[in-house]
Design goal:
The chain has 225 residues and is of the alpha/beta class. The protein is built from 7 helices and 10 strands. A 6-stranded mixed beta sheet has the order 6-7-8-3-9-10, with helices on both faces. It has a 4-stranded antiparallel beta sheet with strand order 2-1-4-5, covered by helices on one side. One adenosine-5'-diphosphate binds next to α1.
Amino acid sequence: PPLLRLDEVTVRYGRKDALDAVDLDVAEHETVCVLGPSGSGKSTMLRVVAGLQRAASGRVRLAGRDQSGVPTHRRGVGLMFQDHQLFPQRDVGGNVAFGLRMRGAGRAEADRRVAELLDLVGLPGAQRRPVDSLSGGEQQRVALARALAPRPRLLMLDEPLGQLDRGLRERLVMELRELFARLGTTVLAVTHDQGEAFALADRVVVMEDGRIAQSGTPLEVWQQP
Ligand code: ADP
Ligand code: ADP
């Protein structure tokens, strides 16, 4: 089966369908970018996959397993949000180690993994730096390291580069793409930036008003009217 399958998933806020019977498959190792205007349901899609939001109907499956009733921390998903929400009172190492310690990793094991992750995201040796001393791009890297720490089977990014200036975004997008290819990570990312989606994705899904309006490779979506 695909790593992720949404089967006619509907999410309702009051009387409004934020997602309207959405079907979506994401294959193992694939990077899918969800594109669409504000309010089209992109964040809701991530929230329902993460188990932060209940589906009114339909099924979310991970590796073939129905996730209804499965709490967020047992779904094996990593999350990185727009405003990255680092813990300001912890240093870089403390931020990256957070999920590991929560999952019962010992100090030595967590330290090893944190060092490995900081190398991976291009911040070697940054363990003891206070997060408020970091630039925006560095904070994004820390948030990414934190999301990758528990080796999620699915990494979900919500406007991962949203706060950064254009030059930095373009550079980071290429770095992310290489990193995901190297790790074999499966990624579901949400953005309203077309250039970012096309640069990052194997497949682009365009949302409109709670429905999938288009889906295909970046080239296919680009060429559709
Ligand atoms: P996007 O991420 O594409 O901006 P969202 O998934 O945040 O879209 O929102 C989809 C729709 O659902 C919007 O109309 C939004 O206002 C509405 N919505 C999102 N979250 C809530 C909520 N907690 N309560 C009520 N309506 C919500
Ligand atoms: P973003 O645009 O960054 O995706 P939103 O402003 O849509 O964020 O949402 C911020 C928070 O408010 C989210 O938790 C979302 O679920 C909630 N939210 C969004 N729209 C509504 C709404 N119409 N009513 C209540 N809560 C909402």
